[in-house]
Specification:
The chain has about 525 residues and is mainly beta. It has five domains: about 35 residues; about 240 residues, Galactose-binding domain-like (Jelly Rolls); about 70 residues, Sandwich (Immunoglobulin-like); about 60 residues, no CATH class; about 80 residues, Sandwich (Immunoglobulin-like). Helix content is about 5%, strand content about 35%. The strands form nine sheets. Strands 1-4-9-6-7 form a five-stranded antiparallel β-sheet, with no helix packed on it. A five-stranded antiparallel β-sheet has the order 2-3-10-5-8, with helices on one face. Strands 13, 14, 16, 17 and 18 form a five-stranded antiparallel β-sheet that branches. The longest helix is centred in the N-terminal third of the chain and has 16 residues. The protein is elongated and about 120 Å long. About 30% of the residues are buried.
Length: about 525
């Protein structure tokens, strides 16, 4: 009976281990319960092949000697063409060759192994950013480790480059199932024009921070990667502001929040470490990724269609911000009229392979609901703000570039409004001048003789009324209306008002310009 009970417990435990659903990559749901949905989940990644490389020894297969001490002073450049990017006094493992080097095979691959097989060959590199070991001691230094290479050919401005790589989260021996450490890590690429700029920092420093703490270094690009020990493939697309001859890869410049050790030492020695392999650096156009295009050549059009090349025997699934778009399963996608802004990808699959397209960003268009009048008027000796300032929008008006357009005289104005993202609209506005002065009578005689019995705004005054009010000399409002044709008959609360001087206030617009007219009118009886 005891044996049967034990068997039932084992079966329940086994069932529990396998009851989680497999991630489905096109339904917009977190099927396997890991907090990641669709393309955010590494399970939905397509492995892509890359040929060609501006980097030498991008898979770390070529090396001078086997690593033995994992220290900066002894092994900072044992991998051909690669070297440590920063000085450090920490004995940190940076290079492993898991089959040919006995120390690796007997130690690293036995106790702290990455997922096998490796993405390419037997060598891989480890990138370290230490966590706080004693957060209660107010530690200020956290060592960051980088690897670098002097390129044979410089990266030049005006060219889009892509760094592709495979990476895997370090599997800590005290948290092998990532119960406590499931946070993303950041892969970052920095550049410098001078190959002698590495290693950077001060020798024997506890921490030299990140490259951009030092002159000449430029952040080129970065990406956050989620991995629970599995190798995942990613890419960083970037341009350079000047010729780059030296690159370094490692953590970004942010600090890690302190992590207190749990009672069972769960986080002790659990550094923020990840492994790298199969690095390729090329002009983006040399990658075989498919590129999304807009059929209208203007992604600002709310009714535009984006597309990717059509392939035989292939299926398609479109994603917005890495979440599947229901029903978007052809090689074209019609953007919605509203809420189209975001990053789009398409997953292209066939019976033997799949690939995810390069991201295509659709910008919001601040001009889509922006219009200028075809014909409007300008008050004589006045100005008119025809086109208001809009963040990110510039105007070309009759050959001059402006951030807003104020008109001072009549004429025909050719106006092009353009956003920073290239969205544009053209307008042709005819401005004519007119006399906008308003004459208001200064007296009236409400005696019932049919002549000048009411005080009103003259019918020929071209004003769009908002409010017309009359006040006595003590400030009491005796009359008020919002009716353009309203008139004061000289009474107050149904009783004839006393003769004397009253104050009028008229608020409204003339030619879309707000006005307030204030004056005196005499009631004569």
């Amino acid at each position: 009976m005891k044996a049967l009970k034990f068997l039932l417990i084992v079966l329940i435990m086994m069932t529990g281990n396998y009851c989680f659903s497999q991630e489905i990559c096109n339904n917009g749901k977190d099927d396997d319960g890991n907090g990641l949905t669709d393309l955010h989940d590494p399970d939905c990644q397509c492995h892509f092949n890359v040929t060609g490389n501006l980097l030498q020894n991008g898979s770390f297969e070529s090396y001078k000697t086997c690593p033995l001490k994992y220290s900066y002073s002894a092994e900072s450049d044992i991998v051909d063409y690669w070297h440590y990017g920063t000085y450090t006094n920490s004995n940190t493992a940076s290079y492993y060759h898991n089959l040919s080097c006995s120390y690796d095979s007997g130690q690293v691959m036995l106790y702290l192994p990455p997922e096998l097989p490796l993405p390419d060959g037997n060598g891989f590199m480890s990138i370290t950013q230490y966590n706080y070991l004693k957060p209660d001691k107010n530690e200020k230094d956290i060592a960051k480790v980088y690897i670098g290479q002097c390129l044979q050919k410089p990266l030049v401005p005006g060219v889009s480059y892509t760094l592709s790589f495979s990476s895997a989260r370090f599997q800590s021996f005290d948290d092998p199932h990532f119960k406590f450490k499931a946070t993303a890590f950041t892969v970052t690429i920095f550049g410098n024009a001078d190959c002698n700029a590495a290693p950077f920092g001060v020798k024997n420093a506890l921490s030299n921070g990140c490259p951009t703490n030092y002159d000449g270094w430029q952040l080129l690009g970065k990406i956050q990667v989620v991995s629970k020990g599995k190798w995942v493939q990613n890419r960083i697309r970037f341009t350079v502001p000047f010729n780059i001859n030296l690159i370094e890869i490692g953590p970004d410049c942010s600090l890690i929040n302190p992590d207190k050790d749990l009672q069972d030492n769960t986080t002790y020695l659990d550094y923020y470490v990840y492994d790298l392999d199969d690095l390729h650096l090329l002009p983006t156009e040399d990658f075989h990724f498919q590129h999304i295009k807009s059929q209208t050549d203007n992604s600002c059009d709310k009714d535009s269609v984006i597309e990717v090349a059509s392939f035989p025997n292939s299926t398609y699934q479109w994603y917005k911000d890495s979440i599947a778009i229901a029903g978007a399963t052809s090689n074209t996608y019609h953007l919605p009229a509203a809420n189209a802004e975001g990053t789009y990808n398409v997953l292209i699959s066939n019976p033997v392979s799949c690939q995810v397209s390069e991201p295509f960003y659709i910008y919001s268009n601040p001009l889509k609901d922006f219009y200028l009048p075809v014909d409007t008027s300008l008050c004589e000796n006045d100005s008119l703000l025809l086109a208001p300032p809009i963040e990110g929008v510039t105007y070309m008006c009759n050959g001059a570039t402006e951030t807003s357009i104020k008109i001072f005289e009549e004429g025909i104005y050719e106006i092009n409004a353009t956003t920073a993202n290239g969205c544009s609209k053209n307008f042709r506005v005819n401005i004519h001048s007119q006399n906008c002065s308003v004459w208001i009578p200064n007296a009236f005689t409400p005696n019932g003789d049919g002549l000048n019995d009411e005080f009103l705004i003259p019918p020929n005054a071209k004003i769009a009324l908002e409010r017309f009010s009359i006040f006595d000399r003590w400030g009491n409002r005796v009359f008020s209306t919002e009716n353009r044709n309203g008139a004061w008959d000289g009474s107050y609360k149904g009783t004839p008002a006393v003769a004397g001087i009253y104050i009028y206030l008229i608020a409204g617009k003339i030619n879309n310009r707000r006005i307030e007219l204030k004056g005196f009118v005499t009631l004569i009886r």
